[in-house]
Design goal:
452 residues, alpha/beta, Beta-Lactamase, six-stranded antiparallel beta sheet, 17 strands
């Protein structure tokens, strides 16, 4: 815990606590900061609060905070007496004059010597700082940390909003880095299950035996090393949501067990003869077409139909040209308050390279590029030298080819296609697996199967 020195306390009394507090909140930039007393009446109201919510301090000082902060969906922004502290709670607040803004709320309550609530400080950080500050960004669609100006992405967000309130199984399709888990979590938070667990597992990250135990649990003695009973994800997520990432990689022998959970809401832990009932909403995601996997014999058709009741496609960033500049500035604004560097402009050549780049890692890669620029560069302008080496070596192409080895088709049976892919990729597993649309884990299993 940080402590203030007697010298600081003396200095604070000289300049006045109100002046110091006002200066600190101004340094924070765009955001709402306010303080309330033991009766939740407003004692302090920052300039950012005036600007974003449309209420002057003289209009709200001394009044209950619920008169100034009107949260949608019945959220009470001032009910801290029991919680004590809140960190990054997602809320929507209605603005004076119409419309609403999305915020991440952080708050800290204070208590007197007898333990009675004495007041609190609250900070509301805009989900979209540029949207809040600039009318030019009013075409940005936002939803639980997901935002876009692209029409295709906006259509996906519309579907996500509508299906979130239901119990329907959703299949999210998109490349790595497009935000599939973020969408899954948003679906959970907007559902009636939001106060229950949200658990996730990557189906490509575990061997079949480990994945079966992770999903369904096991009993003591089920296999070597099973020294005690262990609950699986389905049991721990009961009443909530389970997110199955890269579900196309689910081993064929486990697909029937997943189908049974979806159809009958029952499962049997590994090594047990006891059937357990469970109430879990399934949200799945994959970067590949399940229909193609069904044709290849890698995925059960009946399970595919159970999983893709509502399919949602997240377009890659290279197809969302309107979003690149906006997201760049969004992540720059998130980094600006937290380090030795503050970026205020981008060099034209650097911006051209950023806009022309195909972004194979999508939004996740863009975030990493911004973090890289803050780590290696200094000064208010982001230059070409502040970007990772791939941006400086050669001008990037607008989009990667569908087959990184040229136009030569990969034909023949599966073993032949794997052999040819390895040959064309000079033995590089990553490139060979990508050319066949497989994950590394699946490619490795196929090689072992065919003894390649």
């Amino acid at each position: 815990m940080s402590q203030s020195s007697p010298l600081f306390n003396r200095w604070l009394s000289q300049i006045g606590p109100d002046t110091a507090l006002e200066a600190i909140t101004d340094l924070m930039g765009s955001g709402v900061v306010f303080a309330v007393d033991s009766e939740a009446k407003i004692l302090f109201w920052s300039r950012g609060a005036e600007r974003l919510l449309g209420l002057r301090s003289e209009q709200v000082i001394g009044k209950p905070c619920t008169e100034a902060i009107h949260c949608e969906q019945g959220n009470d922004p001032c009910g801290l007496a029991e919680q004590g502290a809140i960190k990054d709670q997602y809320i929507k607040v209605k603005r004076t004059g119409g419309g609403s803004l999305s915020f991440f709320r952080t708050a800290r309550a204070f208590f007197d010597a007898s333990g009675k609530f004495a007041g609190a400080f609250e900070v509301l950080r805009p989900e979209l700082p540029m949207l809040a500050a600039s009318p030019a960004q009013e075409d940005v669609e936002s939803f639980h940390g997901i935002f876009s100006r692209d029409p295709a992405m906006k259509e996906a967000l519309k579907i996500i909003r509508n299906v979130a309130e239901t119990e329907t199984t959703v299949l999210i399709r998109g490349e790595s880095g497009t935000g599939k888990e973020l969408v899954a979590h948003a679906l959970h938070m907007e559902s009636p299950r939001h106060d229950k667990p949200f658990l996730a597992v990557n189906c490509a990250a575990l061997t079949p035996s480990l994945l079966e135990s992770e999903l369904f649990g096991h009993v003591r003695g089920a296999f070597t090393g099973a020294v005690r009973d262990r609950s699986g994800l389905f049991q721990r997520a009961d009443g909530g949501t389970l997110f199955l990432d890269e579900v196309a990689e689910l081993p064929f022998e486990l697909q029937s067990k997943l189908l049974r959970v979806l159809q009958e809401r029952t499962f049997i832990p590994v090594g047990s003869d006891r059937t357990l009932m469970v109430d879990v909403r399934i949200i799945a995601a994959t970067h590949r077409s399940l229909r193609e996997q069904v044709k290849l014999g890698n995925f059960r058709e009946d399970l595919m139909y159970r999983l893709r009741v509502v399919p949602v496609f997240l377009p890659p960033l290279r197809q969302r040209r309107l979003d690149v500049s906006f997201l760049l500035w969004h992540y720059i604004e998130r980094h600006n308050p937290h380090g030795p560097r503050r970026i205020e402009r981008i060099e034209p050549e650097a911006m051209r390279r950023l806009l022309d780049y195909p972004w194979p890692g999508n939004v996740r890669e863009l975030q990493n590029v911004v973090e890289y620029a803050f780590a290696v560069g200094r000064g208010p302008e982001l230059t070409l030298d502040d970007l990772p080496p791939e941006f400086r070596e050669t001008p990037p192409v607008s989009a990667p080819p569908s087959n990184p080895f040229g136009k030569r088709p990969l034909a023949g049976d599966e073993a032949s296609r794997i052999r040819e892919a390895l040959k064309l990729a000079n033995g590089q597993i990553e490139e060979a697996s990508r050319s066949l649309g497989m994950s590394r884990a699946t490619f490795w299993r196929k090689r072992k199967k065919y003894q390649l």
